[in-house]
Amino acid sequence: MKAATDTIELTFERTIPASPTQVFEGWLSPKVSGTPWNIAEKLSLDPKIDGFFYLHVKGISHYGRFTEVESPSRIRHTWVSPNTLGLESIVTLTFKKQGADTIMTLAHSGLPDTPEGRKHEQGWNYFLNTFPEQFGKASREEK
């Protein structure tokens, strides 16, 4: 068994046919499908520096604190759930203009290198495969 201090980082990238501002604002909106906030059964969301979030989905609580909110280029927040084994991990999203599109990158670091920690790959892919659809059919998976 690996030591509790072993961690992994997951990185995902999508090309979205919209401006960085549209993608940034869409990601923070609980009304937009494909975001963690949208599927929450219970939600508290305050997306500003030192603002907290809490979401409850399918009996599982997730929470964290926003540490960077730089519209329209970057969001960073902590992430704690039972699958992080109660440890604080970090989610960083960047939004970079590329022609008429936005390259959206999500990196989740500090996850425990356990089956529970690796479940985040499936979870983030679920969101990131749904979210770009809100901006048109030209969206595609990059990595």
What does this structure look like?
The protein is of the alpha+beta class. It has a single domain, classed as Alpha-D-Glucose-1,6-Bisphosphate, Chain A, domain 4, CATH 3.30.530.20. The chain contains 2 helices and 8 strands, in the order βαββββββαβ. It has helices at residues 20-27, 115-130; strands at residues 7-16, 42-45, 52-57, 60-70, 74-79, 89-98, 101-112, 140-141. An 8-stranded antiparallel beta sheet has the order 2-3-4-5-6-7-1-8. A hairpin with a 2-residue loop joins strand 6 and strand 7. The radius of gyration is 15 Å and the shape is globular.
Number of helices, counting only DSSP H or I runs of 4 residues or more: 2
The count of DSSP E runs of length 2 or more, i.e. the number of strands, is 8
- Spell out the helices and strands N to C: EHEEEEEEHE
Strand order of the largest sheet: 2-3-4-5-6-7-1-8
Structural class: alpha+beta
**Beta-strand content bin:** 35-45%
Q: What integer value in Å does the Rg equal?
A: 15 Å
Spatial shape: globular
Low-confidence runs? 138-143
What fold name goes in the CATH topology slot? Answer: Alpha-D-Glucose-1,6-Bisphosphate, Chain A, domain 4
Which CATH C-level class is it?
Alpha Beta
Which CATH architecture would you pick?
2-Layer Sandwich
The CATH superfamily name is START domain
Largest beta-sheet characterization: 8 strands, antiparallel
Number of domains: 1
Mean pLDDT across the residues is 93
Terminal CA distance: 29 Å
Task: Indicate the percent of residues in helices.
Answer: 10-25%
